[in-house]
């Protein structure tokens, strides 16, 4: 659902045409909604904006759980353009964890410069061993 109008922000509460704007799945949906609008979507109090999201209720108040928002500029003829200036990908608007992202392990450059081990010498054929046994004196057998 999309809705356009003038954004009003008081403290950490934001409204569009008297409808509360919030972020779904947050422990502080109203405050996180305002933070999302100001920081991620870069819109502020008094801006004419289009908000994209899901309508619901928080208590008795109508609410829009914001997924994206953008400022709309008046055209020379006085109408407004409802095209987003920059859309936010769903992955980018997911709640952020408190942990920083893991870094990829560093590549070990020394492995690339290591010399290969020398090859082992070929095994001697079995025939050479048997000939050495034949040249040894055999013990005499008792009769």
Enumerate how many helices there are, as a single number.
3
Radius of gyration from the alpha-carbon trace, in angstroms: 38 Å
The strand count comes to: 5
Strand order of the largest sheet: 1-2-3-5-4
Mean pLDDT: 75
C-alpha end-to-end distance: 112 Å
Overall geometry: rod-shaped
Could you describe the largest sheet, including whether it forms a barrel? Answer: 5 strands, mixed, barrel
Low-pLDDT residue intervals, each spanning 5 or more residues: 84-98
| Class of secondary structure makeup | alpha+beta
Helices and strands, in N-to-C order?
EEEHEEHH
Percentage of residues in helical conformation: 10-25%
> How much of the residues is beta strand, in percent?
25-35%
What does this structure look like?
The protein has a domain at 2-91. By secondary structure, the chain is of the alpha+beta class. The longest helix is centred in the first third of the chain and has 12 residues, at 29-40. It contains three helices and five strands. Strands 1-2-3-5-4 form a five-stranded mixed β-barrel.
């Amino acid at each position: 659902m999309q809705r356009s109008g003038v954004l009003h922000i008081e403290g950490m509460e934001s409204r569009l045409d008297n409808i509360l704007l919030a972020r779904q799945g947050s422990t502080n949906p109203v405050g996180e909604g305002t933070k999302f609008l100001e920081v991620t979507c870069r819109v502020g109090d008094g801006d004419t904006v289009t908000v994209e999201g899901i309508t619901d209720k928080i208590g008795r108040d109508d609410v829009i759980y914001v997924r994206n928002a953008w400022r709309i500029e008046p055209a020379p003829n006085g109408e407004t353009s409802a095209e987003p200036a920059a859309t936010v990908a769903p992955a980018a608007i997911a709640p952020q964890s408190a942990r920083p992202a893991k870094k990829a392990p560093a590549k070990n450059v020394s492995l690339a410069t290591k010399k290969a081990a020398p090859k082992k010498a070929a095994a001697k054929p079995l025939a050479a061993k048997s000939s050495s046994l034949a040249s040894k004196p055999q013990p005499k057998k008792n009769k």
